Amino acid sequence: MAAPLGAIVEALGGQLVGAPALLIERPAPLATAGARDIAFVAQARYAAQIASTQAGALIVPAALQAQAQGRGACIVTDDPYLYFARLTQWWHARHDPPPPPRVHASAFVDPAAELGAEVDVGPFAVIEAGARIGSGARIGAHSVVGRGAEVGAGTRLQPRVTLGERCRVGERCILHSGVVIGADGFGFAPHQGQWIKIEQLGAVRIGNDVEIGANTCIDRGALDDTVIEDGVKLDNLIQIGHNVRVGAHTAMAGCVGVAGSADIGARCTIGGGAVVLGHLKLADGVHISAASVVTRSILQPGHYTGMFPIDDNAAWEKNAASLKQLNRLRERLKAAEQAIAQALPNKKTDDA
User: Fold this and answer.
1) 240 plus 129 within the same structural domain
2) Do the domain assignments include residue 209?
3) What domain range includes position 142?
4) How many CB atoms neighbour CB 155 within 10 A?
5) Is the pTM above the cut of 0.85?
6) DSSP H helical segments within the chain, as ranges?
7) 293 with 322, same domain?
8) Per-residue confidence of the chain (352 residues) as pLDDT tens digits?
């Protein structure tokens, strides 16, 4: 179902340049957009693509208005990328609205559970005793909400999500398929060559507006709770260990691993495949490059990288061996520099 360009501006704001009746069939990438699509250009370095794109309308900053206007319709806004993000939300709500809420006949809802107004429960979902589901929440097919767990208003659990007993998820969250919240943390005491299980007595507390990608796992705390604060965004296949705290509006890319009791600040970013070791602290505003291994606490905001370039194994072993000698070589170089510095005044005296 196409939407007039004027309806988009009426809903989302911005300055419209061109015909408001122009019908838009879909948001699209700049390179492949057609005559009835809308795309965005966020930065001046992509200005050259304005002339070549076939998009029927563009979302651009004020600095690119003249170029965009010269080729056709456009919407001018301070932040085209943010505008495009809001457009996708508006488009999804308009073109793919959720079905009316219902509790499917095959779902099991314990009589001691509490469901708010307009809660949707999918096929074969299980909601156990003492669980509380906020108004407008949606529990996907085959998902499980454990005993005493809580799901906030407007939160969506996609199919096959597991929310463990006593764990809490805030409002307007999205948990994608395969997410497991509240599995036991990795806690064992060594004894005579064996591992004795430490019962994990804490839970998981997740704030509002959090999104968690497919097959990500967040372990319950050993004694206190594991905490994920408001606005955190976690990609697919992330492991969050027990008693970790992740500060508000931090984002992590796929395959990140955070070991137990790490304390990660607010507004941090952690690149894909990076690892944060246990019991470390990252200050607010720390940004970790992909594939880095964080082996010490980072107490100042900034961008940090810690990786060893990949190479064939034989060369890597030689380089690693050399790397281990760097401190000894550094000390030798300092000693040589000191010896040269001491000799230089004597040389000047001899020359005189």
Assistant:
1) yes
2) yes
3) 108-304
4) 25
5) yes
6) 5-12, 48-52, 65-71, 80-95, 313-324, 326-351
7) no
8) 899 999 999 999 999 999 999 999 999 999 999 999 999 999 888 889 999 999 999 999 999 999 999 999 999 999 999 999 999 999 999 999 999 999 999 999 999 999 999 999 999 999 999 999 999 999 999 999 999 999 999 999 999 999 999 999 999 999 999 999 999 999 999 999 999 999 999 999 999 999 999 999 999 999 999 999 999 999 999 999 999 999 999 999 999 999 999 999 999 999 999 999 999 999 999 999 999 999 999 999 999 998 777 678 898 888 888 888 898 999 999 999 999 988 886 655 455 4
**Domain of residue 50, CATH code:** 3.40.1390.10
**Is 103 inside any structural domain?**
no
| Rounded distance between C-alpha atoms, residue 128 and residue 118, angstroms | 18
Can you tell me the distance from the alpha carbon of 106 to that of 131, in angstroms, rounded to the nearest whole number? 18
Task: Return the CATH number at 234.
Answer: 2.160.10.10
Claim to verify: residue 165 and residue 238 sit in the same structural domain: yes
Residues 116 and 194 in one domain: yes
Instruction: Round to whole Å and give the CA distance between 330 and 263.
Output: 34
**Which of 277, 227, 224, 216 has its CA nearest to residue 250?**
227
| Domain-embedded: residue 101 | no
* Annotation marks residue 242 as catalytic: yes
Q: Are 217 and 275 in a shared domain?
A: yes
> Residues 242, 249, 279, 303: which is the catalytic one?
242
